[in-house]
Amino acid sequence: MSYTTEQLLEILDQELRASWKGERVVLSSADRLNNPVISKAIGAEKLSKVFAIQDFRAQIHDYQRQHGVSGLVWHTCQFAGRSLRIPELHPQLIAIPADKAALVAARPAMLTFWRESIAGLRLWMAGNQPRPTSLAQVEERIAASEWAELAATRDELYLSLCWGDPKDCHCDWAKPDSGCDRIIATAGEPSGIKV
C-alpha cells in the first residue's frame, strides 16, 4: 500500500524540520553550486540544509510518479455566504496526470460559483498595477483556460484561469506554454493582498 497525499505532506514537513535543525547533512553541497563566492557567502551549513530538502523533495516527487499519488489538496472556498470544496496543487508536490484531469473536471463548478458570487462587484486584472476589466474580457480568458483556481478574502474573490503544467503555471518564465491569468472581484479597488 502506498502513502497518501496527506502522509507524504507529513513526511515532507518532518524532513523540513529535521533539515533546519541540522539533522540532515549533504556533504557535497558546496560542490553543487558553481559559484564559490556565493557558496562561501551563504555558508556550507545553510547550503547543506537547502540541498537536503531539495534532494528529499525530489525523492517524494519520484515516489508520487511511481505510485500515482496525487499532489492535490482540497479546501473550501467561502465568499459572500457561498462555499465550494475545491482542489489545488500543493506547492511542495507535483501534479500527476490524473491531477490535471481533476483540476479540469472541477472547473465548471468553480466558474459557476464565481459567476454567482460576482454580482455587483468590479472586475480587475491582477498585476503590479491592477487594471479594470470587463466580464466579456474575462469570459474570453475563461474560454482559453484549461482549469480554474479560486481564493477569497472577506471582501475579494480571486479567480485564476490556468493552462499548461499545473506545477509551472504560476511562474512567469513558463509562459506561453503554462500560465495563469488572475481576476479580482471586489466592491471597490483591489486591496493589494497577494493570495
Which labels suit this protein?
6 helices; 195 residues; 23% strand; alpha+beta
Describe the structure.
The protein is of the alpha+beta class and 195 residues long. Helix content is 42%, strand content 23%. The protein contains 6 helices and 7 strands; from the N terminus they run ααααββαββαβββ. The strands form 2 sheets. Strands 4-3-7-6-5 form a 5-stranded antiparallel sheet. The protein has a two-stranded antiparallel ribbon with strand order 1-2. Helix 1 packs antiparallel against helix 4. The radius of gyration is 20 Å and the shape is elongated. It starts with a helix and ends in a 9-residue tail after the last strand. The mean pLDDT is 86.
Architecture blueprint of SSEs:
Blueprint lengths: L4 H16 L8 H4 L3 H7 L1 H24 L4 E8 L2 E8 L7 H21 L4 E4 L5 E3 L1 H10 L2 E6 L3 E8 L15 E8 L9
Antiparallel strand pairs: 1-2, 3-4, 3-7, 5-6, 6-7
Helix pairs in contact: 1-4
Low-confidence stretches: none
Q: What is the topology, as strand order, of the major beta sheet?
A: 4-3-7-6-5
Shape label: elongated
Distance between the termini: 36 Å
Write down the secondary-structure element order: HHHHEEHEEHEEE
Helix content: 40-55%
Q: Describe the biggest sheet? A: 5 strands, antiparallel
> Treating each run of at least 4 consecutive H or I residues as one helix, how many helices?
6
Structural class estimated from helices and strands: alpha+beta
Number of strands: 7
**What integer value in Å does the Rg equal?**
20 Å
Kindly state the mean pLDDT as a whole number?
86
What portion of residues belong to β-strands? Answer: 15-25%
